[in-house]
Amino acid sequence: MTASELISFARGAPSLDIVDVSGLKAAADAALTNDPGGALGYGTAIGYPPLRKYLAERHGVAEEQVLVTNGSMQADAFLFDELVKPGQPVIVERPTYDRTLLGLRQRDADVRPVSLAVDGIDVEELAGLLEGGLRPTFAHVIPNFQNPAGYTLSLAKRTRLLELAEQYDFVIFEDDPYVQIRFAGEPLPTMLELDEGRGRVVYASSFSKTVAPGVRVGYIVGPAELVAKVRVRATNTYISPNMFAQAVVHRFCVDGGLERSIATVNAALAERVQTLCDALSKHLPDAKFTAPEGGYFMWVELPEGVDVAKLLPAAEERGVTFVKGTDFLLDGGERTMRLAYSGVRADQIEEGVSRLADALASLA
C-alpha cells in the first residue's frame, strides 16, 4: 500500500469484499424468473408486496403497518414530513446522525439534544426536561450501535423511554438500520416489540447494511393510520419505489442469502473492530473509545486541545480520512471523531491509524 492510497474511515458502508455479489446475482435471476411482472412493473407505493408480507411476518404485525421505501433515509424523510411540526420540539441523541439533524432543521423543528452515554440516551435527563414542561412531538433514537457513537440502548432504558412516551404522550421513532450487525453481546428486543402494539413506536430499518448499500431498500413499521398517511406522501413523490431492487432483496432473503450475508459481515467487522482497538491503543494511547458490540462506527475522543477541524486536513494530506465529531452535534465535539471501520479492510486499519497519529503529532 502506498501513501497515495486513501484509507477512508469516513463512509458507513461495507467494503465490496464482504458483499455477497454472487448471491445477489442469483437472487436477481430468481426474481426475474419467478416474478418478472412484479419485479419490472411500476407497482404501488406500498413497495414489492411479497417483501412487504415478509417484513410484516418478521415483525409480527399486519401488512398495513409496513411500507417499503427507497432506503431508510427515504423512510426517515417521509416520517419527518408527517411528524415534524415547525417550531415544535423534537428529541434527538447528542451526538446523532448528521443527516437526521439536517432533515429536522430543514423542516424547522426545535431540535432538543439529550446526552448519550455508552448505554444509550440519558433517559433521566430527558425525564427532567419533560417534568420541566417540554412536550416533544417525537424522540428520534438509534438504539443499536448508534451512528455515530456505536453505543447501544440498554433494555432498562428502552423500557423507561417507553414509559416516558406513554406518560407524556409522544412518539418514539426507532431508527434501527444496524440491528442485525451484532458480533458481540446478546441481542435486545426492539422498542417496537416492547410496545406490544400500543402505537407509541414507529420503526425504520434498512437492507443497506446487511445486503448492500446500492440496493437502496428500507422500510417503516408503525400504526396503520400513520403508515397510510406516509403511503400518500410516497405515492405523490414517486408512485412506486424501486420494485426491481425490492424483488431482488426479497428473493435474497427467502432463499437464505440474508442470513449468510449477515454472518459474513459480522465476522469481518468483529475482526476489524479488534484490529482498530489494538491500533488505537498502540498509536493513539491517549485517545478514549469504547469498542462497539456491532454496527459500523466507533466514537473516539482525543486529548484536550486537539481540534479535529485542523486534524482532518492534516490527516488527508497523509492519505487517511474520517468524519469530524462536530458534524454530529449542534455544538461542541471539537476533539471527537467518528471512525467507520466497515469499509476498511483489516489489513488497512493499522496503517490508517498510524497516519492519523502522524497527523496528530504534526499539530503539536
UniProtKB/TrEMBL annotation:
Its cofactor is pyridoxal 5'-phosphate. One of its GO terms (molecular function) is transaminase activity. GO terms for biological process: alpha-amino acid metabolic process. Keywords: Aminotransferase, DNA-binding, Pyridoxal phosphate, Transferase. Gene3D superfamilies: Aspartate Aminotransferase, domain 1, Type I PLP-dependent aspartate aminotransferase-like (Major domain). InterPro entries: Aminotransferase_I/II_large (IPR004839), Class-I_PLP-dep_aminotransf (IPR050859), PyrdxlP-dep_Trfase (IPR015424), PyrdxlP-dep_Trfase_major (IPR015421), PyrdxlP-dep_Trfase_small (IPR015422). The keyword Repeat does not apply. Pfam families: Aminotran_1_2 (PF00155). This is DNA-binding transcriptional regulator, MocR family, contains an aminotransferase domain. The lineage of its organism: Bacteria, Bacillati, Actinomycetota, Actinomycetes, Pseudonocardiales.
